[in-house]
Amino acid sequence: MVGAARVLDTGALLHLPPPKLNGGICADSQKAEVERHDQDRGLLLEQIRIHWRQPSPNGMELATTAAQDTGDISGLSPVDMDVIALALEHRAIIVTDDYRMQNIAGIHGVGWHPVLESGIKEQLRWELECKGCRAIYPGPDKPPKFKRKFGKCSFCGAKLKLKKVA
Questions:
Q1: Which of 13, 86, 120, 125 sits at a 20 to 30 Å CA gap from 155?
Q2: What is the distance between the alpha carbons of residues 110 and 87, in angstroms, rounded to a whole number?
Q3: Domain positions in the chain
Q4: Which DSSP category does 50 fall into?
Q5: What is the pTM of this model?
Q6: pLDDT tens, residue by residue, 22-36
Q7: Euclidean distance between CA atoms 36 and 3, whole angstroms
Q8: Angle at CA 62, nearest 5°, toward 58 and 68?
């Protein structure tokens, strides 16, 4: 990991020792998230050499396409999408414990490094399955308005759920 560009997710900003944050790339949107969790940590981060960036529209498009491809978009926040966009734009390693972000990074050729956890063991893709008739639909193309609410089956009207693709 020496010399490689690193995009730090909010978990890394909150939990890694300050020297390990130096030189990291972070999304501007993460500042408010860090301060919401720990105001003192937010003040400390102002003293560290972090490269705060706004992802480009092209980076956001790459991140959206990548998250749709794996089906992980359903569990990602706008801040997560900013972090993924920066990693894809800069071809940088994502430092995160978020399994969805690790999955997207791995499948789309971007390295990842865990913060406190061991990380994912395998890469997965997701699709939607009807709870009633078991009809299969492509994975979600955007995060649901409400957690775990993916709509209803067009055949039988039962709820759809996320399912790993075998």
A1: 125
A2: 7
A3: 6-113, 125-166
A4: -
A5: 0.88
A6: 999 999 999 999 999
A7: 31
A8: 140
CATH architecture observed for domain 6-113: 3-Layer(aba) Sandwich (3.40)
Helix axes 78-90, 57-70, angle to 10 degrees: 110
**Do 89 and 55 contact (CB within 8 A), yes or no?**
yes
pLDDT digits (tens, 9 = 90+) for 82-112: 999 999 999 999 999 999 999 999 999 999 9
Question: What b/e string do you get for 96-121 counting C-beta neighbours within 10 Å, with b at 16 or more?
Answer: bbbbbbbbbbbebebbbbbbeeeebe
Range list of β-strands (E), the chain: 6-8, 25-27, 51-53, 93-95, 112-113, 126-130, 136-137, 160-164
Tokens representing 125 are 């893709």
Dihedral over Cα of 12, 86, 55, 73: its sign: negative
